[in-house]
Design brief:
InterPro entries: Glycosyltransferase_2 (IPR050256), Nucleotide-diphossugar_trans (IPR029044)
Protein name: Glycosyltransferase
Radius of gyration: 22 Å
Pfam families: Glyco_tranf_2_3 (PF13641)
CATH architecture of the largest domain: Alpha-Beta Complex
CATH topology of the largest domain: Spore Coat Polysaccharide Biosynthesis Protein SpsA, Chain A
EC number: 2.4.-.-
Organism: Gemmata palustris
Length: about 400
């Protein structure tokens, strides 16, 4: 049994670190602060809104109408109709915006579409480029906030990107919406209050042109936002979070479409963890950049369900071993870290999440996590490597 205890402690440390990072970020986010003052829209620089779109005829009109209300004279909107086989391009032109049509079936993914859009902008570049997905809506003053922050910081800016559970969706989508709130709002808000950068989220992003023109965009990573975050951070351009610039998407109602979306996000996150963390830590050591360590720790927090399932399984194994005569200290250490993270998540739920995840749906959380076990097992056997578009629902009345 002599070698088992050191192995147990290695496992405990590997799991306790992301639990503690998660807890620290969440606790840092719960302090109440006043919203940032609205920027003067009349004084903001000229911007371009870049909208990558692949077969988005069901939703592109809503997005364009939403954005048009925030445009200033001289702004541009460019829709990149990427390998479209539907009416996306025609609908965008009917709304009076620029359309760049791209056809390349061998190189698929948002990264390639963004690089194509960048080429379309290069002849008359704006001061700031804002990227918004074709299925998202922007909150009031979001465009102005993103542009003002990017101009002031001279680095990438990420707005608050939240997912909404449609009214007809079940409680599992409510749990998913809360997990999204933790990942895309509470944790980056905590990092901002700790003076650290955040991860890009794929939409609601703003880039000064000097940054955007040289950004490594043209790749087919299935979660291009995480890959781009790592690449930019290694260049000294870690993104900053703008919590008051809100962008919202909506989960698919269809379970199969939701499963495709979830598999792409979570498999991609796990792949970036394996590749990005060593890069960030090595660069942090060689260049003595503490901010890269903080970003590596943030990237190292697995998807919430994967973390909960893994910690629960390890605690069960360690508990059985301790009951049979093994040490109780590893159980206590990992259990304490888990309790710390649990209290932090409960605090975030009380502060921000009660409208997203009603108290009556809290009992669904363990079942929601358990349903993801096949997803994580599939990652071990056959991880998803290619970008796959999420099918869209028919638009529905939200009134």
């Amino acid at each position: 049994m002599g070698w088992l205890e050191p192995v147990a402690w290695v496992v405990v440390v590997v799991l306790a670190v992301p639990l503690i990072v998660l807890a620290v970020e969440c606790f840092a986010a719960v302090r109440r602060v006043r919203p940032a003052p609205l920027p003067d829209a009349s004084a903001r620089p000229r911007c371009a809104v870049l909208i990558p779109a692949h077969n988005e005829e069901l939703v592109i009109a809503r997005t364009l109408l939403d954005i048009s209300a925030q445009l200033r004279p001289g702004d541009r909107v460019v829709v990149v109709a990427d390998n479209c086989t539907d009416g996306t391009a025609a609908i965008a032109r009917a709304h009076g915006v620029e359309v760049a049509e791209r056809t390349d079936p061998t190189r698929r993914g948002k990264g390639y579409a963004l690089a194509f859009g960048r080429d379309a902008l290069s002849a008359d570049p704006p001061e700031v480029v804002v990227v918004i997905d074709a299925d998202c809506t922007a909150g009031d003053q979001t465009l102005h906030r993103l542009v003002a922050e990017a101009r002031a910081r001279r680095r990438p800016v990420q707005g608050s990107y939240l997912m909404v559970a449609p009214p007809q969706a079940g409680p599992n989508r409510q749990v998913a919406a809360f997990a999204f709130l933790v990942k895309n709002f509470a944790r980056p808000l905590g990092l901002r209050r700790l003076g650290q950068g955040c991860l890009l989220m794929g939409t609601g992003m703003a880039f000064p042109w000097d940054v955007f023109k040289g950004a490594p965009l043209a790749h087919g990573h299935i979660v291009e936002d995480l890959g781009l975050t790592v690449d930019l951070a290694l260049l000294g351009l870690a993104p900053v979070f703008a919590p008051d610039a809100e962008v919202r998407g909506e989960f698919p109602i269809d379970d199969r479409a939701a499963g495709v979306q979830r598999r792409r996000w979570e498999h991609g996150h796990l792949r970036v963890m394996l590749a990005g963390i060593p890069q960030l830590l090595a660069t942090a050591v060689f260049r003595r950049r503490l901010g890269l360590v903080a970003l590596a720790l943030d990237v190292g927090v697995p998807p919430l369900s994967a973390l909960v399932l893994t910690v629960g399984a390890v605690l069960a194994i360690l508990g059985i071993w301790a009951a049979l005569g093994g040490p109780w200290a590893p159980v206590a250490a990992l259990g304490g870290a888990g309790l710390f993270a649990g209290v932090a998540l409960a605090t975030v739920w009380w502060r921000y999440g009660r409208g997203v995840l009603p108290a009556k749906s809290l009992l669904r959380v363990p079942l929601y996590a358990a349903r993801k076990i096949p997803l994580y097992l599939r990652f071990l056997v056959k991880p998803q490597r290619d970008w796959v578009r999420t099918a869209r629902d028919q638009p529905h009345d939200k009134t």
